[in-house]
Write a structure and sequence with these properties.
- The chain is α/β, with parallel strands linked by helices and 515 residues long.
- Strands 6-9-10-3-11-12 form a six-stranded mixed sheet, sandwiched between helices. A six-stranded mixed sheet has the order 18-21-22-15-23-24, sandwiched between helices.
- The mean pLDDT is 87.
């Protein structure tokens, strides 16, 4: 068996204006090896993978395939070499069906007029869907699928390339536990078939489960690597951040003021037959758990007025608010940090300054002119307080790491004195160090009197952060768990629709309306 690695990156360097993204980074991947690439946001993982994918060219260093130097000047060069990507941010066209997305840009043609052979692409797509355990038709349009199902279509697209190396960037960030288990099983199957995998994930439990070796980057440099026998959560974290990360839960200094934020009989367009009612206290972090598709994100969008077909009642501090009116929600200080930060939370082509001030632009305008110096002062304040890694406020958000993009979304709303902050998957795709920062920020906001509603599919996160946990099942709240009853077993029992004695009512009074 050849000892020459399938892929070798040696001494890779990449600089951007004001930033050294990579400084002499090296990485080797053997045939059929699963290499986990770990590091904090901004450590250089994405830049290194973009170089491997032909998006960027290195300023220095060499890339070798089968021991031979290669140049990857374009995405097509990467595909020709057998390198396929599964991106964290979805790269699909939701107006096309599944098969069209899987073979986008590689459609087989037939006949003298070179028409797309749709029969063939559907026939070739169906086995890929079955291999992934995805019970959908290849003719289903992407906008009819959940975020998790769209992610699996991305994986099917990579498999269709018969790639030698598959790079998976946070592939399970939108998947259920069952889908995650299937994906990890698939990674093992690919490895046994001789396909190499570069697995990028902040979910270190997955890394421990599937990686043959872990390579860690820190501040654009190699921080070290671990063979499979030495791969543990604590050792990975130690290389990533250089410090120990302990349990994040911090009890509130004072009991929350109960019933400040109330929701009664709220129905979303996704679950019109299910009425949701709950109370949240001032100074409380109320976690929302449940399986993907349980209706948590739909509930959040209904509360802030993004679901025009929603009905029900919402009150903050005794004042009723109009459901379905996003402007009214913003004016009362009820803000949403959405799960899809790039698609719904940011304008990635705009600068950090423009994104931070976008929702409150009237504050910076007079006589129809925007005062950029005032905008910049607010943006600089958020950059400093949130430790956003960016050269300056005029950097385009597109050029920031995923974790720093999330901080920009947070900075937009934090600059507007939130009364209720709804965070939907707030640390999706964010490293353990940045997670700790966001958790401390959430607790600090709660201590200042902000009502925090946190939606998360990360069980560890739910257990570490929440003062109480509301568990949703098929569009309704199955029960609420007090802090003392917040266990993984209790949450999962409620999440699959079972009733347990520990579950409490979602609101204090017995009446479905307001007192």
């Amino acid at each position: 068996m050849s000892t020459t690695p399938l892929l070798a990156l040696r001494g890779i360097a990449k600089r951007f204006p004001g930033v050294v993204a990579l400084d002499g980074v090296s990485l080797e991947v053997g045939r059929g090896e699963v290499v986990a690439l770990c590091g904090e946001n901004g450590a250089g993982k994405s830049t290194l993978m973009k170089i491997l994918g032909g998006v960027y060219q290195p300023d220095a260093g060499d890339i070798l395939m089968d021991g031979q130097p290669v140049r990857i000047n374009h995405v097509t060069d990467a595909l020709r070499l057998g390198i396929a990507f599964i991106h964290q941010e979805l790269n699909v066209l939701d107006n096309l069906d599944v098969a069209a997305n899987v073979f986008l840009g590689r459609e087989p043609l037939r006949g003298p007029f070179k028409l797309i052979d749709r029969k063939k692409i559907h026939a070739d797509t169906e086995p890929l869907l079955k291999r992934l355990g995805l019970d959908i038709s290849s003719r289903t349009r992407l906008d009819k699928l959940s975020l998790a199902q769209q992610q699996m279509v991305e994986i099917a697209k990579a498999l269709s390339l018969n790639a030698r190396i598959i790079i998976m960037d946070e592939p399970t960030s939108s998947l259920t536990l069952t889908e995650t288990e299937r994906l990890l099983q698939l990674v093992c199957e690919l490895s046994e078939q001789g396909v190499s995998v570069i697995y990028i994930s902040h979910r270190l439990g997955e890394v421990e489960h599937c990686a043959d070796r872990v390579v860690v980057l820190r501040d654009g440099r190699n921080a070290g690597q671990l063979p499979q026998a030495d791969v543990t959560h604590d050792r990975i974290v130690g290389l990533m951040v250089g410090r120990e990360i302990k349990s994040f839960y911090c009890a509130p200094k004072a009991p929350p003021t109960a019933g400040v934020f109330k929701v009664r009989n709220l129905r979303s367009s996704r679950y019109p037959a299910q009425a949701v009612s709950f109370d949240a206290g001032q100074g409380e972090i109320l976690g929302f758990a449940g399986l993907v598709g349980a209706g948590r994100s739909e509930l959040a969008k209904a509360i802030v007025g993004l679901d025009r077909l929603a009905s029900g009642e919402v009150a903050l501090g005794g004042e009723r608010l109009s459901v379905g009116d996003s402007r009214a929600a913003i004016q009362r200080g009820i803000y949403l940090v959405p799960e899809d930060r790039r698609g719904e939370g940011l304008v990635v082509g705009m600068t950090v300054r423009e994104n931070v001030t976008l929702a409150s632009l009237r504050r910076f305008a007079s006589l129809f002119l925007i005062h950029r110096d005032r905008e910049r002062a607010v943006a600089d304040e958020q950059i400093q307080s949130l430790s956003i890694k960016t050269p300056n406020a005029e950097t385009r958000v597109l050029n920031l790491s995923g974790g720093n993009q999330q901080k920009v979304v947070l900075g937009k709303w934090l600059s507007m004195d939130p009364k209720v902050m709804i965070l939907d998957e707030p640390t999706r795709g964010i490293d353990v160090g940045a997670k700790a920062e966001i958790y401390r920020l959430m607790r600090a906001l709660a201590e200042r009197g902000t009502v925090i509603l946190m939606i998360s599919s990360d069980m560890e996160e739910v257990l570490n952060i929440s003062d109480r946990v509301a568990v949703m099942y098929e569009g309704e709240i199955a029960g609420v768990l007090a802090r003392a009853d917040c266990t993984e077993e209790n949450i999962m029992q409620l999440a699959v629709g079972k009733k347990i004695a520990a579950a409490k009512p979602a609101f204090a009074n017995s009446s479905p309306g307001f007192e």
